[in-house]
């Protein structure tokens, strides 16, 4: 019995020695890697944003008498200018409504992508839109990209107005393989869509406390 216990002890000790050696090798390798990165002129800058959106100078916006949630003409023009400056097609409310009525939306040839976070998406979104948070792309990037690659047109939107999340999401989708020519940005976004009485799912109840799915 004593020999068996000693053998088991030696086996456990050997395992721990192997684990310790592996951790040591990993730590040494990581240290050398960081040192080489710091010395190399082509090393990675840990604080750098490697996927920046092109900077666009904002123009003054006149709100005018536009209803809440609906961008004024100047605000819409600013958003269109910003989106087109980044190389994407920009759609206004009228074009978005026209596309929503297209049967291609129901067959997968047209995909809508909601670039807002999960909580606002669950509270309400354009029917059939797929949620894709550009700040947490790992959550559903593969699923959304797979759908976009099968589509002829991909309409991306966020809250609208000065929100640039739709452009960031479009940029990530493009980097993942979705052709740029398929991507468009609905500049009015969800706030304009809802404010103008368009379909929303799930639509909040009259109390505003619990979302209820549309029939």
UniProtKB/TrEMBL annotation:
InterPro entries: Rhodanese-like_dom (IPR001763), Rhodanese-like_dom_sf (IPR036873), Thiosulphate_STrfase_CS (IPR001307). Residues 203-215 have a biased composition (Low complexity). Keywords: Membrane, Transmembrane, Transmembrane helix. One of its GO terms (molecular function) is thiosulfate-cyanide sulfurtransferase activity. Residues 106-202 form the Rhodanese domain. The chain crosses the membrane at residues 12-39. The keyword Transmembrane helix applies. Residues 196-215 are annotated as: Disordered. It holds the Pfam family Rhodanese. This is Rhodanese-like domain-containing protein. The lineage of its organism: Bacteria, Pseudomonadati, Verrucomicrobiota, Verrucomicrobiia, Limisphaerales.
């Amino acid at each position: 019995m004593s020999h068996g216990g000693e053998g088991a002890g030696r086996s456990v000790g050997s395992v721990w020695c192997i684990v310790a050696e592996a951790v040591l090798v990993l730590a040494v390798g990581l240290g050398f890697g960081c040192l080489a990165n710091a010395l190399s002129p082509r090393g990675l800058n840990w604080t750098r944003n490697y996927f920046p959106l092109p900077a666009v100078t904002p123009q003054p916006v006149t709100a005018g008498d536009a209803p809440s949630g609906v961008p004024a003409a100047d605000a819409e023009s600013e958003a269109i200018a910003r989106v087109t400056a980044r190389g994407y097609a920009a759609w206004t409310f009228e074009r978005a409504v026209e596309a929503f009525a297209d049967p291609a939306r129901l067959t997968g040839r047209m995909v809508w992508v909601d670039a807002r976070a999960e909580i606002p998406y669950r509270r309400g979104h354009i029917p059939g839109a797929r949620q894709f948070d550009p700040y947490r792309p790992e959550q559903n990037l593969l699923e959304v990209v797979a759908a976009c690659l099968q589509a002829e047109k991909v309409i991306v939107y966020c809250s609208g107005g000065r929100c640039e999340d739709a452009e960031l999401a479009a940029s990530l989708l493009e980097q993942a393989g979705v052709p740029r020519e398929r991507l468009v940005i609905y500049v009015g976004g969800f706030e304009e869509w809802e404010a103008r009485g368009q379909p929303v799912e799930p639509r909040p109840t009259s109390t505003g406390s619990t979302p209820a799915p549309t029939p």
